[in-house]
Amino acid sequence: MTSLSQNHGWLGSPAGALWPAAELEASSEQQNPFIRFRSFLWSYKNAVEKGFTDRDFIQLVNRLDNSIGEVDGTGFSQTPFENCSDLSSAIGRTGDLWIKNETENVSGSHKARHLFGLALHLEVDEVPLTTPLSIASCGNAALGAAVVARAVNRPLIVHVPVWADTSILDHLSNLDADIRICERKENEEGDPCVLRSQEAVAEGAISFGCQGTENIFTIDGGRTLGFELVDAWIGTQKTPEHLFIQVGGGALASSVIQALYTSLNLGVLEQLPVLHSVQSEGCSPLSRAFDIVSSSVNPFESLDGDEPMWAWENPNSVATGILDDVVYDWKPIVWALLEMGSRPMSVNEETLLKAHELVHGHTSISPCITGTSGFAGILASHEEGTLSPDSAVAALVTGVER
To answer: What is the CATH number of the domain that holds 294?
Structure first.
């Protein structure tokens, strides 16, 4: 097998999807990624098949986005992609170091991109407003889901662990989320929050999280981040040689990977950067799965099964936002790493803390430790000597310090 299907978590793009024309960039409306990249969205395809005109869909996006702005103070727009020369110099590098800053996204992280993409599907499919939505999260994903659910006037159940931060819970409560604290049951394997959310879905709720294995259309909105990266590379006429992305549940990396390969297949990009997925040493199920797959007789065929991925025991790290004991969307990531001749990274706690400090000290961005995990991969690779100091590198900084 040299390609993936939806059974492997690969969403793909609708037939006939086209890259937006360059002359559209100046339009303020086109700064909304769900409008600019709408031809790649399955919600757009479904809308057109239901009789929507192009303008109808744009008006739907604008209406929902205005509601997002009323709840969160800002709507969706393309997030900054900046060359951080001071940060590069601070770690002894001479090459360009680019940061895509997701702290300026709705609700302060990339998570709302996935969830707004799902909200568009709910609207186009005319799902009743009384149907509950369900998510397992106690951080940025929950906050993003709560903002979007509140904006589109839909009930949301949030399943959180017993150790969830009270400030996050207060914020969720203010957004009218139905908070359910999930204790681990005796002899239960896997994340109890995920298990309780799955039970809610079995009872009629709709999965409204950032796991493509639970609802593959969460990849739809997430891919807009990858398309934005491509847009930025076209604008600078330079594609980085290496791209570092944090991995928790895996939907972010999977979404970006799928967008990049779509762009490559369309001829928008001539080549892709080498992907580097980053986890903490205290929770590295992706590395374990990759080692099993890559050592098999036919690695690509090994992606047909689920055996290489199972729950990591006792996940522990200062980067709490990537402590998913299972990488749910692991198959597209492992596939891309195999294609590129790369492999997953596991970063130690000292490097995660140092990366966080450096980003705060040498940029104007204010991210959390999880948010700087991608940059921690750059730092670790540079210090290990596996990354040429004059190479052009990029990372996503994904969540604001709260």
So the answer is: 3.40.50.1100
